[in-house]
Amino acid sequence: MLTAVAILIDGLGFAAWLFLSSVGLTLIYGVMRILNIAHGGFYALGAYSSAWAIGLYMQTGSSVAFTYLLIPLMAIVVGLVAGLIIERGILRFMYGRDEVLMVLVTYAIFLILEDATKLIWGTESLVAYQPAYYLGNIEIFGIPYTVYKFALIGLAVLCGAVLWWGLNRTTTGKLLLVVIEDREVSSALGINVTLFFSATFVIGTTLGALGGAVTAPQISVVPGIGAEVIVMAFAVIVIGGMGSIGGAIIGAIFVGFARAVSVHLYPPAELFSIYLVMAAVLAIKPYGLFSLAQGRKI
């Protein structure tokens, strides 16, 4: 019984983190058809900027309450500034190019962002435990869990609901769906496709930075965390179907519970279990669970 409860809660917590860390990646691919390897770099920038800002703020001796506003604020700053610079300065010149070339370009950007974090914050680890620590713990069947973990689950649900509402219940979201369906027809109808691309990339990078920012209070922020998360995020969106928000939710749940089961029942298989799930899904659905129909190429 206790093991089942632990698997349920840990699976939900890990799934929430995976969704927050990967939904921006699938959003950018769905609209722009860019597999943004640089997403891991934005995650790292969000984690570093959040940990750095929290550290500076706590040195003032002020209340920890403001740090919960500081976390999303730093993610928004990173997403807006770095996202706009990269999209306007580099990617807009690459639109319409081969997808493999775009992967190489975003991989180069990822390497640049990795070095940028080292130049700005150095190679020493940053620790910003205060937001998670001061929320305290809660016991469920005698097992202690941080309240912060449940806050992240709630945040993931909120982000998923807002994205669904924005895409399906707003005029802008419906126009975006038209852009996704056919860029050329959208331009002919007078829709500013370039503006939608820029907005989508900034929202996607902000979500990636938010994933890192909310993770910072739970970990020691060190160089290389971006490389780790891009692999996990890629597994999530491949399982769910690249470009599908709903698929990202299901993919995160699959991966989250696969990891939780392996951690509690057979820890050596933790990483293997994630890729086993991905391989099993792709063997049945080569384009993911919720992918759109693929046109046959001759």
TrEMBL record:
<protein>
    <submittedName>
        <fullName>Amino acid/amide ABC transporter membrane protein 1 (HAAT family)</fullName>
    </submittedName>
</protein>
<dbReference type="GO" id="GO:0005886">
    <property type="term" value="C:plasma membrane"/>
</dbReference>
<keyword id="KW-0812">Transmembrane</keyword>
<feature type="transmembrane region" description="Helical">
    <location>
        <begin position="141"/>
        <end position="167"/>
    </location>
</feature>
<feature type="transmembrane region" description="Helical">
    <location>
        <begin position="219"/>
        <end position="239"/>
    </location>
</feature>
<feature type="transmembrane region" description="Helical">
    <location>
        <begin position="65"/>
        <end position="87"/>
    </location>
</feature>
<feature type="transmembrane region" description="Helical">
    <location>
        <begin position="188"/>
        <end position="213"/>
    </location>
</feature>
<keyword id="KW-1003">Cell membrane</keyword>
<dbReference type="InterPro" id="IPR052157">
    <property type="entry name" value="BCAA_transport_permease"/>
</dbReference>
<keyword id="KW-0472">Membrane</keyword>
<dbReference type="InterPro" id="IPR001851">
    <property type="entry name" value="ABC_transp_permease"/>
</dbReference>
<keyword id="KW-0813">Transport</keyword>
<dbReference type="Pfam" id="PF02653">
    <property type="entry name" value="BPD_transp_2"/>
</dbReference>
<feature type="transmembrane region" description="Helical">
    <location>
        <begin position="99"/>
        <end position="121"/>
    </location>
</feature>
<feature type="transmembrane region" description="Helical">
    <location>
        <begin position="272"/>
        <end position="293"/>
    </location>
</feature>
<feature type="transmembrane region" description="Helical">
    <location>
        <begin position="41"/>
        <end position="59"/>
    </location>
</feature>
<keyword id="KW-0029">Amino-acid transport</keyword>
<comment type="similarity">
    <text>Belongs to the binding-protein-dependent transport system permease family. LivHM subfamily.</text>
</comment>
<dbReference type="GO" id="GO:0022857">
    <property type="term" value="F:transmembrane transporter activity"/>
</dbReference>
<feature type="transmembrane region" description="Helical">
    <location>
        <begin position="6"/>
        <end position="29"/>
    </location>
</feature>
<dbReference type="GO" id="GO:0006865">
    <property type="term" value="P:amino acid transport"/>
</dbReference>
<keyword id="KW-1133">Transmembrane helix</keyword>
